[in-house]
UniProtKB/TrEMBL annotation:
Annotated spans, Disordered: 68-90
The UniProt record lists the keyword Transmembrane helix: yes
Record keywords: Membrane, Transmembrane, Transmembrane helix
Domain NB-ARC: from-to ranges: 120-277
Name by which UniProt lists this protein: Tetratricopeptide repeat protein
Pfam family, one: TPR_12
Species, as recorded: Streptomyces akebiae
Membrane-spanning residues: 7-27, 47-68
Alphabetical list of InterPro entries matching this protein: NB-ARC (IPR002182), P-loop_NTPase (IPR027417), TPR-like_helical_dom_sf (IPR011990), TPR_rpt (IPR019734), WH-like_DNA-bd_sf (IPR036388)
Keyword Hydrolase belongs to the record: no
Amino acid sequence: MRLRRGIAIAVVAGGCALTTMLVGLVTNAVSDESRWPGWLGWLQEHAWFSFVVLGVTMAGLTALLAGLSETRPPTPPGRPEDGTGPPGAAQVLRSLPRDTAAFTDRAAELERLVGSVRASQERGEGLPVHVIDGMPGVGKTTFAVHAGHLLSERFPDGQLFVNLNGHTPGRTPVQAGEALASLLAAAGVPTQQIPVGDDVGAVTEARAAMWRSRFADKKALLILDNAASYRQLEPLLPGGSGCLVLVTSRKRLVANEEVVMSVDALPPDHAVDLFVRLSGRPADTFDRDVVDALVRLCGCLPLGVSLLAARLRHHPSWNAEDLRGRLVAARDRLGELRAGERAVTATFDLSYRDLAPERQRFFRRLGLFPGTDLDPHVGAALGDVSVVVARLHLEALYDDHLIDEQPGSRYRLHDLLRDYARGLAAEGDSMDHAQAVQRVCAYYLAALTVVNGHIGRSGAVVPPAPDGASRVETPPLESRADALSWLETERANILACVRRANGLALYDLVVRLAAAMAPFLRQAGPWDQAVGLHRTAAEAARHTGDQRARGDALAELGVVRRFMASYPQAIEALNNAVTAYEAVDDRRGKADTLNQLGIVWYLTADNEDAARAQTDALALYRELGNRLGQANALADLGMTHRQMSRFDTAVEAQSEALAIYRELGDRYGEANSLRDLGVVHCLMGAYDLAARHHREAFDIYLELDDRVHQAYALNELGVVRRLTGDMEGARTAHSQALTHFTELGERFGRATSVRQLGVVERVTGDATEAIRLLVEALDVYRELGSRGGEAASLSELGVARGIVGERDGAIEAFQRGLQILRGLGDRCGEAEVLNHWGMLLFTSGESAAARGHFDQALTLARDIRCPLEEARALEGIGRCDWTIDGPGHGVGSLRAAVTVYRRLGVSAAVNDIERLLVSRSG
């Protein structure tokens, strides 16, 4: 049954899809390592209505562009767009449902299962998948969960449970890619790192490869419940031979190496024992022949037996014969309508008719819930009752075995009971279905209004609460953590409500729910899920003729596409959003969308277009008096100017953004502007000021408990320390950042830390170790598609290879790096490579050729006011002149270099030149 594709195919497909996801993030990024991890921090809603998914990150993610080498300290992640970072992958590695008292003796099956697992483990063999099949209501899930609890100690790395909805009425089976996203998040993978894309097959393969890799060396137990087919579950199988997978299905799935276990109806004597135990009455008060006949009437199915026992428990005046008579009457009432399922359906009918009218109505409406599991608040919305009353109904229905209790005080209907309840509802008021969906959607809109108040940034647009929201009882969500936890729990249910509302042509609800979910999906993703939601919302808005709502949906779609690095699709969606906003003169929507277009162009190094879009957005925000929008546009404009080596205008824009963020009390905006100012000041040679900004940013990230941004701030601080001669301080900072990124699974940030450590090794004299580290970083940057990171690594790799005598390899690295930098328009990086290349030529005895490189670097450095590269070029020119024309020549250039170095505090370079000058005078 493990129809695994070849390892090579899985690896290649997985790698390709994963690369696709990250490629855009860091593609064409001109040295902005910041904007990527920023997805977490970039999460903040950009003022524009907050396009979803990420809102961050899934928010800002703007792409971490790689910052160039020595003088190109890693640029900090971009500003958060929505929220204060990612919700954090919930490490729910203990997610088995509670064991049930309704489990009865299946000793033979349990012994076979446990014995199979024990034998495989003792022999050191890979654990086969165990497939548990059987008819509906026979107790497959109960058996799997009970076995899972018995075996849990053998699988210390976690026990997970996934309902695949293979036969759930009203729900389509869970797609493998969707289930993998949930599993990866539960296993601790940051959602922004889960592969996404438009090719469903490639994305599923990529997620499957990541999932197998994640559990390759683990001992974990996974229950895949309610599988529809082998094709659905095969990608979910972990890669580790130490993992146990239990699958339940109504179908006899095709199998190869799996252990197939069929669970049949209970033997009559076991069914009788279960009935007696659950009835709460002494065994000697029953006539076993009567009980035997009773349980045979419900096919000896555990579900039916449990319901019958509950009926007797709640009617002390009845005896088993009374119950048997009522069950026979119920079967007769069903006639041929449900002939194929009359055995167990009769028990449903008997239990349902025993309920009070108001509880019957509540039970029927549970069958109309589009989601899977629910809490009393959702129950209240469905039943049109108070939460207190809903809780009483749910507890009573659970006591009657008509619903199952799930972890977290949540409840769900067994698939057979859900189908039964839906059938009852269909027999009643034909309008009840739409009304129930409207009520539950209205509840979710009211709750999302509260949630978005916690996860949104100050000044961000929050979708308005629905009419009558003040009368809707919402959960007590007191913090951002509460809000994110609630969203993770309800996400699938809300999206199911959107699908049902769309199917019922409740288009206004579709649009409003999509808008309300946008900030969270920006953070939590996965982005392909968000793409589907916003496409649906855009089409729903088209049906209603609401151009503003259509613009909102298209804008959200464009932002998510940006996060997926699907830049052409992002631009198309955003341009369409601008058109929609212009049609209704929505200047705020247009400004937000122009801001997002500017970010896309920034990421693709279309700097002039980016600057123009941000300038236009800024003008609109100023007309509207929108302070957060102004700050966001200014911050993005500052980053664009920095990318164009326009450092003075970058500082001006970023400083104004910083002032507004502080005025608004937006700590993330403040930290991100401080970080970017630190990068610019470092490039301008103001190292003390740069260090102060980075430390201030780091302290804010520490306060906000954002480890991703802390790590980026550490890398940037390490660059400043290295440039000012504090090599141990630099090594410490980069090592701490490397630890953070490794623990978080943030590959781009980790590559940057490795690259910066390589530079430290090169500067301190270990060129061989430097080459090893730089090659490692280069490989990752290329895999991620980061041209800026690739150029930075090549620049440093050229220097290190020159030191060890690999002249051809060094020149090749310089040539490739220079080509990338010129394509990106990064003139500061270009000057740096020319200086490195010139020094290689100089040390190789080619002083005339070297001087030409230094001359070019000097022109670039002075044009963009990059003092470190200016000093290096002056030093190179002076040394070349000294060598070509003899001692005493080039002194003017050398002294000019000393002046700049002194101003920068680069004492080592000053000492080297002064020794040379002293040798002349001596």
